[in-house]
Amino acid sequence: MTTGPMEGGPMPDTASPPGPAASNASLRAYLRGLPGVDEVGARERAGELAARSIKSAAKGRAIDLAIRMVDLTTLEGADSPGKVRAMSAKAAHPDPADPSAPAAAAVCVYPDLVSVAVAALRGTGVGTASVATAFPAGRAPLEAKLAETRHAVASGATEIDMVIDRGAFLSGDYRKVVEEIAAVKEASGSAHLKVILETGELGTLDNVRRACWLAIRAGADFVKTSTGKVAPAATLPGTLVMLEAVRDHHANTGARVGVKAAGGIRGTKDAVRYLVLVNEVAGAAWLTPDLFRIGASSLLNDLLMQRTRLASGTYPGPDYFTLD
Fold it and tell me: Would you call 83 a catalytic residue per the annotation?
């Protein structure tokens, strides 16, 4: 929660916010002028929304929507072409026994496996996302980050998930953060750019808000909570602040930026809590895979199990769905 208007009113913006070419001094001054985040209030609000329930009649629609928002992800050193092909088949047809089950939004892999995912997903409508920019730490020269991004795009990636330089951000070098995001955005070409803030390393919700603003101003199509490699990963309070940021950006500019919650979202109940958060904070316009994603690996199986239970009245066995 900001100290400015909430619930339906945009957060106040300064008259002349600095653009991507602004100096570090002007960026610092602008960020200091943003309303602070009431951390206690944000956590209370997130808790209140998490406690809400949805009607049984709406649960099936919520589950299908959550499935459509999943970026089915594998980011392990042991990833292989075979694993990526199997995961791609599952993303396109999550429940082969039920053709009405919707497909996932995208498959997310490392850059060297993008071409495998692209080939496996051709004609399915499922996107191919690639992490880039020295994921997950981001500790590499900009030239290497851009080369990795260009390689992923040339291999067919339709989405790029980049990580910000948290060291630069936390030391106040906001200019470097903005320049890197803008450069990666240019290297991404027509691919959508998701900017990973790694909220678990930013320390405060004020910093989450500031990092969101920098990413949005630098050209992000999505702001993303986490790599999934740092604890805590996605949290409801952190995601609430990010949703406020994109809501306020839309109110001030008319442009919509998406949000991706990634890491630690494993069950249907958690996924539904995030959908409630999106609806109540950003609004129903964000309840689409074009503007909200959930990065996960194990979540999809639980969504499918709950979906089957709603249809049949019984849970499928633990080995009914393939393991990711």
Answer: no
Q: Is 224 a catalytic residue?
A: yes
Choice among 161, 165, 221, 248 that is catalytic: 161
The backbone torsions φ and ψ at residue 35, rounded to the nearest 5 degrees and listed phi first, read -60, 140
The model's pLDDT over 112-161, given as tens digits with 9 standing for 90+, comes to 999 999 999 999 999 999 999 999 999 999 999 999 999 999 999 999 99
**Spatial distance between the Cα atoms of 144 and 133, rounded to a whole number of angstroms:** 7
Write down the pTM of the prediction: 0.91
Pairing of the two strands 159-163 and 292-296: unpaired
Catalytic residue among 90, 185, 194, 224: 224
What domains does the chain contain, in order, with CATH numbers?
37-49+56-312 (3.20.20.70)
Torsion sign over Cα 113, 160, 32, 48:
negative
User: Which one is catalytic: 145, 185, 194, 260?
Assistant: 260
Residue of 117, 166, 176 whose CA lies nearest to 137: 166
- CA 60 and chain centroid, separation: 23
Q: Helix (H, G, I), strand (E, B), or coil: what is residue 219? A: coil
How many angstroms separate the CA atoms of 40 and 157, rounded?
40
Whether residue 260 lies in the annotated active site: yes
